[in-house]
TrEMBL record:
<protein>
    <submittedName>
        <fullName>DUF317 domain-containing protein</fullName>
    </submittedName>
</protein>
<dbReference type="InterPro" id="IPR005523">
    <property type="entry name" value="DUF317_SPDY"/>
</dbReference>
<dbReference type="Pfam" id="PF03771">
    <property type="entry name" value="SPDY"/>
</dbReference>
<feature type="domain" description="DUF317">
    <location>
        <begin position="53"/>
        <end position="108"/>
    </location>
</feature>
């Protein structure tokens, strides 16, 4: 039911800045920086898209038909057949521009630069986890970091 006095909108609605409008439902802008580098593109029968780095140490999944709200998943591997060493997930409400910015930086980094950056992020997360555990111990309150 339309509230009294409200007008229906006929035509396009533009939101500015664009990222406030939510995700676009297409993967092209987020995939483009990596496709431009020659990353291998694969599709499954459900319409999901997967990009593999030439050395298979980084993999991106664009999963509109995935099992949960994780629309974009990016994982790194030291062994292409082993478990991921690091990963990030952007859900279906994340603006595509954020994912495009992430993949643009990813495309600009060499593998060594990526390993250094991800190592720094991992060390920072472990330091934060340790600091919170110490804080919980000294305050007498049990806490949990997720």
């Amino acid at each position: 039911m339309v509230p009294h006095g409200a007008r229906t909108i006929d035509g396009d609605v533009y939101v500015s800045p664009r990222y406030l409008g939510g995700s676009t439902a297409i993967g092209g802008p987020g995939l483009a920086p990596l496709l431009d580098l020659g990353w291998e593109l694969e599709h499954d029968d459900l319409g999901n898209a997967y990009l593999n780095a030439p050395d298979h140490k980084v993999r991106l999944g664009y999963l509109p038909e995935g099992e949960d709200d994780g629309l974009w998943r990016i994982n790194t591997y030291t062994d292409p057949f082993g478990p991921p060493t690091w990963g990030v997930c952007f859900n279906n409400s994340c603006p595509t521009e954020f994912v495009t910015a992430f993949t643009t930086v990813l495309a600009a980094m060499s593998l060594r630069q990526l390993e250094v950056a991800l190592g720094a992020i991992r060390r920072a997360a472990l330091t934060l986890r340790h600091a919170l555990a110490v804080s919980a111990h000294w305050s007498g309150r049990e806490g949990r970091v997720r």
